[in-house]
């Protein structure tokens, strides 16, 4: 009986020591202070926004925008300029290959939702795409009026134009494809950029093209569902020890706010750990579906107190003034 009591006592002591270690090793209360402002990522630059309810893969979001509060169209050079001027640290953009081997900066798989043309981006040369009106399909009142019709002609840029226009700009490039060959094409293009410019870029998207990019450019930050899982699943298993899995190094993590609290040391301890291995953390709203962002004052109230990691937003014009008042 005495032996059993001593055994139980040792178990309790062990569990107490383990619990204390877990707390001290993963509490943000005992970590290096983070004084910098949050890193703000502007999704599609300064864009027209729309309600997220009921969105499917084939939903034409241009047909359901909110009444416009600014004159900018997503994925255009003017919208990117406005986003950087508003306070964006990074601008996200979408790319699609063209018929003549370039990359057009455009979101949709097909052209019929936003433009006055049909078919796919790859069916046209960049010069032909320049002639289209990318503001043609936007409406906030079910087609009664089209406030951007006629104003988007010539505004679809190539990726080359964007990177030359913003030689020091930081961009998150979304390769809108499942084709690994398009990843090879993108990597071939990016490999010709100066090293200092390449360091300002991150590529994300489907596993196959992103894997192709990473193979050719191993030092480039990338993000896909596969790369996210390869980092976070092992981290959930061993992160309590302070060990950082190798897959978490030199990459980018887009973490839904719903799951962020499951990560050991979140927020500050986790952010510092990722900083130490050159990995950028971007917090996205909700469960990560459909590019949900922190877009209002109410959304910001859900952030951890004094959070200063990366933040995904669709309304950089609203969020930046609230979070960068002291800059």
TrEMBL record:
InterPro entries xref list: GP_PDE_dom, PLC-like_Pdiesterase_TIM-brl
Domain GP-PDE: 38-323
A GO MF term: phosphoric diester hydrolase activity
Protein name as it appears in the record: Glycerophosphodiester phosphodiesterase
Biological process terms in GO annotation: lipid metabolic process
Pfam family, one: GDPD
Annotated signal peptide: none
PROSITE patterns: GP_PDE (PS51704)
């Amino acid at each position: 009986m005495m032996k059993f009591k001593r055994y139980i006592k040792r178990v309790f002591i062990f569990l107490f020591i383990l619990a204390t270690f877990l707390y001290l090793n993963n509490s943000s209360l005992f970590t290096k202070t983070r004084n910098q402002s949050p890193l703000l990522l502007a999704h599609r630059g300064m864009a027209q926004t729309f309600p997220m309810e009921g969105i499917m893969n084939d939903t034409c979001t241009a047909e359901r925008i909110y009444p416009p509060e600014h004159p900018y169209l997503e994925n255009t050079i003017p919208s990117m300029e406005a986003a950087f001027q508003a306070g964006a640290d990074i601008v996200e953009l979408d790319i699609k290959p063209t018929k003549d081997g370039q990359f057009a900066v455009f979101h949709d798989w097909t052209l019929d939702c936003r433009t006055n043309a049909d078919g796919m981006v790859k069916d046209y040369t960049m010069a032909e795409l320049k002639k289209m009106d990318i503001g043609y399909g936007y409406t906030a009142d079910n087609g009664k009026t089209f406030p951007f019709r006629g104003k988007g002609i010539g505004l679809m840029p190539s990726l080359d134009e964007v990177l030359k226009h913003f030689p020091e700009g930081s961009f998150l490039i979304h390769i809108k494809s499942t084709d690994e060959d398009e990843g090879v094409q993108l990597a071939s293009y990016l490999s010709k950029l100066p090293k200092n410019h390449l360091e300002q870029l991150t590529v994300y998207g489907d596993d196959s093209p992103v894997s192709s990019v990473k193979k050719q450019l191993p030092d480039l930050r990338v993000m896909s569902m596969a790369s996210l899982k390869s980092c976070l699943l092992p981290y959930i298993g061993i992160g309590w020890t302070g060990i950082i899995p190798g897959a978490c190094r030199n990459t980018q993590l887009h973490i839904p706010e719903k799951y962020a609290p499951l990560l050991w040391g979140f927020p500050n301890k986790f952010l510092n750990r990722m900083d130490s291995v050159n990995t950028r953390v971007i917090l996205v709203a909700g469960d990560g579906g459909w590019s949900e962002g922190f877009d209002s004052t109410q959304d910001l109230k859900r952030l951890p107190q004094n959070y200063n990691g990366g933040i995904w937003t669709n309304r950089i014009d609203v969020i930046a003034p609230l979070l960068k008042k002291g800059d």
